[in-house]
Amino acid sequence: MPATTLTNSYDAAFVAEVRRESEQNLALCYQCGNCTAGCPVSFAYDFPVNQIMYLVQTGRKMEALTSHAIWLCASCETCTTRCPNDIDVARVMDVLRHMARRENLVAEHSIHAFWNSFLSSVERYGRVFELGLMASYIGKTGRVLTDADLAPVALRKGKLTFKPHDIHGVAEVRDIFKRYREHRS
Amino acid sequence: MNIGVFVCHCGSNIAGTVDTVAVAKAALAYPEVVFATDTMYACSEPGQAGIIEAVQKYELDGVVVASCTPRMHEATFRRTVERAGLNRYMFEMANIREHVSWIGKDKDANTNKAAELVHIAVEKLRRNTELTAGEFTINKRVMVIGGGVAGIQAALDCADGGLEVVLVEREPSIGGKMSKLDKTFPTVDCSSCILGPRMVDIAQNPNITLYTLSEVESVDGFVGNFDVKVRRKAAYVDWTLCTGCGECAAKCPSKKTPDRFNEFIGKTTAINIPFPQAIPKKASINAAACLMLTKGKCGACVKACPAGAIQFKQEDEIVTEQVGAVIVATGYDLFDFTQYGEYGGGRYPDVITSMQYERLLSASGPTEGHIKRPSDGKEPKDIVFIQCVGSRDKSIGRPYCSGFCCMYTAKQTILTKDHLPESQSYVFYMDIRSPGKGYDEFIRRAMEEYGARYIRGRVSAIQPKNGRYLIKGVNTLMGDQVEIEADLVVLAVGAEAAKGAPQLAEKLRISYDTYGFYMEGHPKLKPVETNTAGIYLAGSCQGPKDIPSSVAQGGAAASKVLGLFSKDKLASDPQVSSVSLQRCIGCAKCQSVCPFGAIEMTQFRGMTKASVIATVCQGCGNCTSACPQGAIQLSHFTDNQILAEVHALCPY
What is the ipTM of this complex? Predict the structure, then answer.
């Protein structure tokens, strides 16, 4: 790994943007490691979550946004619950995912694809249509056999219907997406 | 004689590896022992009550307690037997904790050894006699050595308590390290603004005699009656005439004299007043730099001085002060970083110490408070601070934490941002140690509000690069190597014992640790006392300390002296030597080995005989070993008593 040159590695705009979007002050973090201590998916991370926080603290944008960890995060919020400085760590992770998406820096394509399929299903039907989501995800990733073994069980329990769920307020859910897009633009 | 033996468990400290019941049982077989028992904590209230009860019930004439070291509880048990109606010297202690239970795991062997130590104590006690303390008068003056903030506090508190104080300072002005600081943590208040008035108080207090540019030459005597010789070094200026106007310095042609007060950043003149707030505000000549004193020609200051105070022929003067107590507050010195090759070993002009940086920050410093690089006078933009330079490094014999560097580095990053808002500070640290009141909050402020970038890791190299410096190091939080291009590097140099500290300790007969810091009487319970009666410690001479702790210790040492002087007379220790006139042959060997000058040779019916000055004798026993006749004996440690102890252990 080449040495990081701290004189110019600090991206002040990135630090400010994370701070604004997450409404969290990362300068408060004193690197105690409580977030990583409780993280249930840290085993799969390339950077443990305290290092992700450190990358944001020290303005190292590319390393933060191209990390796999932000996509492997399960959003369980154990980190947020345990942070002694009341930093909403999970929210920072979420903001980093948004930024990585916007800047085309997503490191985990299949997870990103799943999220996109999930959200478009919710936007369209007001609630996730499982079979449609599966079809969309497989279409985007070609991962035909992922979790295929669960299908018979889910089918038998009526968890995989062939028609989208019929719910009230589909239009309202769509409005949420609309408002989000307006807010972003 | 009826002897009682009490074998202490000390909880499990002793009982864990010594069969105390068996020791007590064995003790019953020793001569004249009429009562023996084991006890949970002999020093506790019920433990002491048990001793008193046994003394009365069994009509004991002497008591042996087998427990810890006499340094811990001899005084305690002497008071106990006194309360029981015995003479305090009819008591012996067998140390079965430090000498037995803490050092051995074999319970049988430990039990045997403990029983033997009790046997020794019993044989000694059988030969003890009742001793009574005398009294001697004390001189209620106190000397404070060192005019830093701890010494200033001690001197002012003693003077306020009505004592006459002699304050001795090595440098031309009092003020110590604190007078060199720009601001102080964690309040960022101006150092000279809070110290200056205290320094003026010293100068104006009628109870305080101030000797600056002076060092302690020798110390004789004992608690209550010390004779201290002080060398007043030649200033080459008659301070009774000098008004501190500064005309001499303005005219001095030797303008490239190294500036000690400014930590050798910038230059001064051969004759100078070290800084504007100096107390006393008197000029002195640096003999090594003065043209008149080195080459015999110049005399510009003589012409300039309106008071006619310059005296090139002035010589050192020795004054003797008689005092009853001494407070040592000689402070610390800063670690010389040039032995670290990775920081350039002193080759780079812009790699400076934290104290030099303080002088750059100070409005009365060589740059009048403008942060400028020593090399080219430019304002730095990127500044790297490196902590633990000469602290926590076993390889250079400095394994201890200097304690205040984390705090002053944070302060310096804050001041840097105040002076140069466009600057960026980086701090390489190992751990942050900020346990004082408001201290950790202060460190957080440096990071959160002032944007100091803290990097957990060490620096491996500083290399010049295009007029700047490339600092290479590690960031252990990320596990990667880092580089910073910076304009200025400030090394947080640690504290070490003041130069000459061991030599002064030997004059004062106090002990010092491996690093030259003075040893307190007890690490918790006697923090400002020493093991030499009448000598007290304050401030960093005992170990690195920040300003609040130094001030607290200065006050504490003063209160100890005031407590000591609250009595008009002190009890003399009866454990002193005395001479048997029949046996003494007047050879004076005892006089030659006495380190305290307590023996004088007198005439008795036309014969020369030794005589002990009881108030001067410290009971060391040198004379008794030297005496070829056994004529001089130390009370409570007579030859007969010591031989009885040896016989108890080696009967054949």
Answer: 0.77
